[in-house]
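Researcher: Re-running this chain for the archive, since the previous output was lost when a drive failed. Same request as before.
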Amino acid sequence: MLVGERMTRNPVTILDTASIDEGLHLMRERRVRRLPVLDSRGQMIGIVSDKDLLHAAPSPATSLSVHELHYLLARLTIKQMMSSPVISVTSDTPIEEAAAVMADHRIGGLPVVDDGALVGIITETDIFKILVELLGARRPGLRVTLAVHDAKGTLAAITNALAAQGANVISLVAYAGVGEFDSRITIKLDQIDAETVRRVLTDLKLNIVDLRGA
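Model: Regenerated C-alpha cells:
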C-alpha cells in the first residue's frame, strides 16, 4: 500500500501572509487540523497545525477585550507560527514508511510532494483507518494471538492447518514478541469455531496468548 492510495488529494492550504484568526477560521470551516502553507508563488514553504495556532492565541483567562483579541490575532501571521522546513513524503512512499516518519518525528500529518508540487496530505487519521482494515476490526470472527519463535515455515504451517479445517483468514499481522518469543501473530478468522482453532494450534505446539470472538 502506497501513500498515494490513501492520501487526501488537493488538501486545504493557506497563504503565509494570512492571519492566525483566518487560519483558525479556515480549520474550523473545513474541519482540518493542519494546513500546508504556500507563498505568493504557490510553493509550499511550511505547515501549521491547530495546536500551533491555539498556542499563539491568548488564554481564555486573559484580561484583553474581544476587540483587543481580534486585533492581536489579526496582526500575527501564519508565517510566524508555521513549521519550516517541512517533512514530507512522495505519493509512492510505502504507507508504513510514512507512519514511521510520523512516529519518529512525533507529527500528525505529512504533506505529499511529487516533483516539487503539493499533491496531497496523509494524516494520523488515515493511518488509524488503515490499521482498522488490516486488523479486520469491522468484521466479525475469531481473533487469536500466538507467541512464536521466528522460524522458517511457521506462518505457512499455521494457515495451512487452519485452512484444512475450513477456516477463512480475514487478517493476519506479525509483530515483535515479548520475552523468550521472537514474534507475536494475531489472526482474525471466520468459518471456524473456537474449540477447533484451539485444538489445531495446540496440535502444532503453539503458545496461544489470547483467543476470543471479535
